[in-house]
């Protein structure tokens, strides 16, 4: 089964079916149409898997996919066109070009937290670049896994694009071990990312790893405290905190701590009411295993707000944790839930020291009006991407690349960057004349060397 899954796509690719603009644009439009037909089912599946509010399901899972599709459809022809680049005078007469070519058969492995969007978004780029694809959605979001499989089988030939279902260890491991994919795109945890990288090394398969990390939010003393509280509360508890770029912990200037905490408390009540468990604006934790892990992180902590939970419904209330020791387990790993530890600092240099204890976060957020503070943070800390005076919105700009650095990932994607990830840039030099200067060819002499030094 697996061999046919792979070999049929390799054969399909080598026959050249996927190379033309007409083929690619047709597949992208078919995908868009099929998603529209299944919008309601997608939203219902997200409710069943994660208890997502309808607004979050549409905006973060479906709407951004439409945005990606429309942008790609609009720009695909120009992305595919060969790019003429300058040719040095000493190589004239000639022209030089870059051709974007499809890689071949690629594997996309997507996670459970945004199970539709994070499967379809890289798929769009892989289709646009002209590849054949095996797509492995997370089996932890079971209802969305079914919908994705249905959508793909409805519109694509199996030897072009297909979905594999099941656990990662039983499906992904043998696929990577036994077949040489031309690219592997993985979104998930750092630990699994390491295993993907190790497995792919056997075949020298290039990988894109979209991982995570402990993304800090810094609120400096001159920042707009009300605006910071409003946006932190929204971004932290969006999707019940199960977002790879969610603010993982808060670093607030000691002079503004109490004010900020009170403001966040007020926004929690405003957004989710007096009893968040009854709110239709809060999602649920994906499963009991991850629920239990999150509750264990609250051991020996000072809970300021929240801390309420219901294992049966996998509900955890928005929770603020104060006076956190940097060595506490909640500060040792990515939280991935609605728990927000609060730390303070006096001097901005302390922020750099604290963030570097969990280096290379996927995102970083800073609230300040001071350009010197802004530049200090940008110049002294490495992170995938982020926002000044906002949170998580950088991922919605299709003109910005999205990806990590160091432990938070390898490579980047979104829009044209996804097309580039799934393409090979082939360099072609085309000589336009038959007359040679002969300085390139032996036997070499002083005149050859003098001329070479003049141009190089």
UniProtKB/TrEMBL annotation:
Which GO BP annotation is one of this protein's? aldehyde metabolic process
Q: Which UniProt keywords apply?
A: Coiled coil, NAD, Oxidoreductase
Ranges for domain Aldehyde dehydrogenase come to 18-428
Got a GO cellular component term for this one? cytoplasm
Q: Which Gene3D superfamilies match?
A: Aldehyde Dehydrogenase, Chain A, domain 1, Aldehyde Dehydrogenase, Chain A, domain 2
Can you tell me which residues form the catalytic site?
210, 244
Any single GO molecular-function term of the entry would be: aldehyde dehydrogenase (NAD+) activity
Q: Which residues cross the membrane?
A: none
Q: Indicate the segments annotated as coiled coil, or none if absent.
A: 21-48
Give any Pfam family that matches: Aldedh
Look up the domain of life of the source: Bacteria
Q: Which family does it belong to?
A: Belongs to the aldehyde dehydrogenase family.
Q: What is this protein called?
A: Aldehyde dehydrogenase
Q: Which organism is it from?
A: Tissierella pigra
Q: What is the lineage of its organism?
A: Bacteria, Bacillati, Bacillota, Tissierellia, Tissierellales
